[in-house]
Amino acid sequence: PAHASPTGLGDMNVGARLYAFRRANASTMRSQFLALSAGSTLPTGNNDEEVNGERIDQHAQLGTGAWGPYVGATYVLRASFWSISANVSGNFHTKNSFDYQFGNAVRWGVEGLRRVNGQFALTLAGEGRYAQRDVSEGEDQINTGGTVLDITPGAAWSPAPDVGIYGRAQIPVVKDLYGQQTVGTTFQVGFQVLVQ
Q1: For residue 140, what pLDDT is reported?
Q2: Contacts of 41 (CB under 8 A, 6+ apart)
Q3: pLDDT in tens, 104-120
Q4: Are 62 and 89 in contact (CB under 8 A)?
Q5: What is the pLDDT of residue 133?
Q6: Is the Cβ–Cβ distance between 65 and 43 less than 8 Å?
Q7: Residues in Cβ contact with 91 at an 8 Å cutoff, skipping those fewer than 6 apart
Q8: pLDDT score of 83
Q9: Hey, how many other C-beta atoms are within 10 angstroms of the C-beta on 61?
Q10: Using H for helix, E for strand and C for coil, what is the string for 75-96?
């Protein structure tokens, strides 16, 4: 199909975080931590969307149709009204029922956050990702994979302790992609609850 815009639930993400260390300094009102994380995306999104009886492209589907285990690390330095964080993660993918496997990927980023008040904050991040080529029926997909570097402004609102709502826009500024690909600005909106 020339055009498709499926809507609905995508792949859900579940994970756990282990704090390797936490330190706080009451005199400077600063704290820092290093955390290790692991989890997986779940194949909850529809991966068989069709238009006029024809299955749309794998990358336009709501879900991957596969499991996506990942591991990562995050460092955060936080003060009263600002924080700086850095992260890196490795993402892997299993094959889906259409014998399609997304390329394994490495993601990294550095983000600054400035609190406007107790509930609202503005963020700015520099992010990057490198992905191997996807594989379909045992064949590398020429027009997949590569490297993208983004500038990502955003905003976050915390209406209650340990509850957050955020929005951000990933704007590609460097693209070194395999084959013929186009990558545009991606908008994200999310809801987060921290369980301790």
Answers
A1: 97
A2: 11, 12, 13, 64, 67, 68, 70
A3: 999 999 999 999 998 99
A4: no
A5: 97
A6: yes
A7: 68, 69, 70, 104, 105, 106, 107
A8: 96
A9: 22
A10: EEEECCCEEEEEEEEEECCCCC
CB-based contact 167:131 (threshold 8 Å): no
Q: Which amino acid is at 193?
A: V
Q: Rounded to the nearest 5°, which phi and psi values hold at 60?
A: -95, -5
Would you list the DSSP string of 104-127? PEEEEEEEEEEESSSSEEEEEEEE
> pTM here?
0.82
- Using a 10 angstrom Cβ sphere, with 0-12 exposed, 13-18 middle and 19 or more buried, the burial of residue 88 is middle
- Asked if 105 and 64 touch (Cβ cutoff 8 Å), the reply is no
The answer on pLDDT for 1 being more than 60 is no
State how far the Cα of 102 lies from the Cα of 68, in Å rounded to an integer: 9
Q: How many other C-beta atoms can be found within 10 angstroms of the C-beta atom of residue 47?
A: 19
**Paired sense of beta strands 186-193 and 50-51, if any:** unpaired
Report the amino acid identity of residue 178: Y
Strand 163-177's sheet: what is its strand order? Answer: 12-25, 30-42, 68-78, 82-91, 105-115, 120-131, 146-160, 163-177, 186-193
